[in-house]
């Protein structure tokens, strides 16, 4: 079994204490950080499928999530580049009612590495909390809303519409997350959509140019 395959197997088994060392070993053997990250993202898909089939339950999903977070911590310095030139502040959070944060954290990391200062509001973020953060932060140019549940897509809609109706200006709003599509982003009035963390950073840079 290759080191990356070992990372995947241990992540899927929720071995949070073993995954960081295996990620480091994979790097030491010459694997690219982006390939290890993609392997871990694929593993979370496997975990999701096992959950859908009733083969595992919420505690196992949570352990896998912890293992992924620990693994990403090892990769973080390699994935985040030079962050010295600021393109403004990005406020990001997972919308109200939703506790999924791995994808949001990856998006935050890639947006930071694209040159933004990031204010991460965490998970279960109400529309009011987004507004408060936009008002309190300096030079906000991007607001990012993440959502993983079909049941919280309405919260995403409410968040975007509350931000748009607030009269606050000078920034663009990006949405994303597994159930979100470009069509949905258009429907709820978001300025941009991105399917993954890398393209979220590209989209953020593109949208800031249009300000
Ligand atoms: Co949950 N969960 N979960 N879960 N969970 C999913 C999302 C699910 C698809 C699993 C399944 O049934 N197959 C399903 C949702 C079904 C649906 O609504 N369509 C589900 C469910 C049902 C639930 C609960 C309701 C289960 C229950 O309690 N019965 C519950 C809800 C809790 C809540 O939020 N209120 C729940 C709980 C949890 C845990 C807490 C145990 C844990 C999350 C821990 C954590 O995040 N810290 C968890 C996990 C781990 C998952 C799966 C297995 C993995 C999610 C993940 O991290 N993926 C997930 C199955 C799956 O995704 N296949 C599942 C890896 C991550 C890198 O991808 O988050 O998609 P993702 O992010 C991507 C893109 O989406 C995009 O870029 C990221 C990187 O490329 N992206 C953006 C994300 N945000 C973006 C923002 C952007 C742009 C792009 O711009 C701002």
From TrEMBL:
Q: Which PROSITE patterns match?
A: B12_BINDING, B12_BINDING_NTER
Q: Which GO terms describe its biological process?
A: homocysteine metabolic process; tetrahydrofolate metabolic process
- Residues forming the B12-binding N-terminal domain are 1-87
Recall the GO molecular function terms of this protein's record: cobalamin binding; metal ion binding; methionine synthase activity
Q: Which UniProt keywords apply?
A: Cobalt, Metal-binding
Record carries keyword Metal-binding: yes
SMART domains the record matches:
B12-binding_2
Recorded GO CC terms: cytosol
Q: According to its UniProt record, what is one Pfam family this protein matches?
A: B12-binding_2
Q: Domain B12-binding, which positions?
A: 87-211
- Which family does the UniProt entry place this protein in? Belongs to the methylamine corrinoid protein family.
The name of this protein is Dimethylamine corrinoid protein 1
Q: Which organism is it from?
A: Candidatus Desulfosporosinus infrequens
Output the lineage of the source organism.
Bacteria, Bacillati, Bacillota, Clostridia, Eubacteriales
């Amino acid at each position: 079994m290759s080191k990356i395959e070992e990372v995947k197997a241990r992540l899927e088994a929720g071995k949070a204490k073993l995954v960081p060392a295996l990620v480091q070993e994979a790097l030491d053997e010459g694997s690219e950080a982006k390939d290890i990250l993609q392997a871990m993202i694929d593993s979370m898909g496997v975990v999701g499928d096992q959950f859908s089939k009733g083969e595992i339950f919420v505690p196992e999903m949570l352990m896998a999530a912890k293992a992924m977070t620990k693994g990403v911590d090892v990769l973080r310095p390699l994935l985040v580049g030079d962050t010295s030139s600021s393109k403004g502040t990005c406020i990001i959070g997972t919308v109200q009612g939703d506790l999924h944060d791995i994808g949001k954290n990856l998006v935050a990391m890639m947006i930071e590495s694209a040159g933004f200062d990031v204010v991460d509001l965490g998970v279960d973020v109400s529309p009011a909390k987004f507004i408060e953060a936009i008002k309190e932060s300096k030079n906000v140019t991007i607001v990012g809303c993440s959502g993983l549940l079909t049941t919280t897509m309405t919260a995403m809609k409410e968040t975007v519409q509350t931000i748009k109706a607030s009269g606050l200006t000078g920034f663009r709003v990006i949405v994303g997350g597994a159930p979100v599509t470009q069509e949905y982003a258009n429907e709820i009035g978001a300025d941009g959509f991105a399917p993954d963390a890398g393209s979220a950073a590209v989209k953020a840079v593109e949208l800031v140019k249009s300000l």
